[in-house]
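Troubleshooting entry. The earlier prediction with 6-O-phosphono-alpha-D-glucopyranose gave an output that would not parse, so I re-checked the input for stray whitespace and re-submitted. Clean input:
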Amino acid sequence: DAVERGEYRHYMQKEIFEQPRAVADTLEARIHAHGVLPNIFGVDGEELLAKVKGLHIVACGTSYHAGLVAKYWIEDYARLPVSVEVASEYRYREAVVPADTLFVAISQSGETADTLAAMRESRRRGYLGTLAICNVPESSVVREADLKLMTRAGPEIGVASTKAFTTQLSALALLALHLARQRGLEQARYQDLCAQLLRLPRAIDEALKLEPQIVALAERFVHRHHALFLGRGAHYPVALEGSLKLKEISYIHAEAYPAGELKHGPLALVDEDMPVIAVAPNGPLLDKLKSNLQEVRARGGELVVFADSAAHIDGNAARGVVLRVDAGGEFIAPAVFTVPLQLLAYHVAVLRGTDVDQPRNLAKSVTVE
Ligand code: G6P
């Protein structure tokens, strides 16, 4: 055990630091500077994907959050409608399936009972086909899917998923680019997105260098009971994932909101006892997010902002802590911003002395309903 963890205190920490490698492995021989290779979904993949008119993504937990990010990407770049649903909901309702819809299951283990049952149920519902995004080649989900795109995270031991998530995002980014190209995304835009994705391992590597600052930041959370995570656009799911990590391993109650919803409820909770963690990448929604942060500040809330280096949010103005993250581009930013949130959850949990790799009441893979 100690040998496998090497220099790291927990598997989770090791797995967080394995992300540049895991993401690079997942992209390896699937994308180069000119684009995504056409055959990455297997022999029938290209033809089947060319017929797709919409996608239904189904997953649980962290894998569900990856699906939510993919919705923003696929709708933005490929202009295809995407719905994302947790498997335990999807399997027990009569979802409407428009013609030529692709069913996509995302699962690290490929054995999650609800996801597997949802996929089996989808067979009855008249989809064009099924695609599995999964980390375990011999798993049930992979065996039963028409198309598969494997993540290459390697074994993930920590119950709280980290490298599985960023490799799922990498695989979903490949899917989004493939669909976008087939549907005529402008060449220059396509090439820029490919270049960003190729930079992702390095951008994650840079984000990992924030660890010493995050260790210091974690001290502020040790005695907290609640935390609120905010993000907008594709960073709303990143906020969800950050809050899930914190609650899973530190047992601090955390919630995530799309920042624009703050005024419709959660603002009532904001006072000096409620730290607010915001993800602020550079992009068209930055000014909107800044005004959301202003609303928090005006109520005495303590702010922690993970801000893009280009975002011009300074510490004084934030009256809190600002940590700079170099996102490396708007497309890959959700994967990059996830990393400091994983580190924050990890170091808060370490300080609180919880069982980081085996949090109470949780299982790595939920194979019964
Ligand atoms: C459990 C794990 C989570 C995981 C979820 C879905 O709840 O603790 O980390 O995200 O199952 O698992 P899957 O293997 O389907 O991705």
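This one parsed fine. The radius of gyration is 20 Å.
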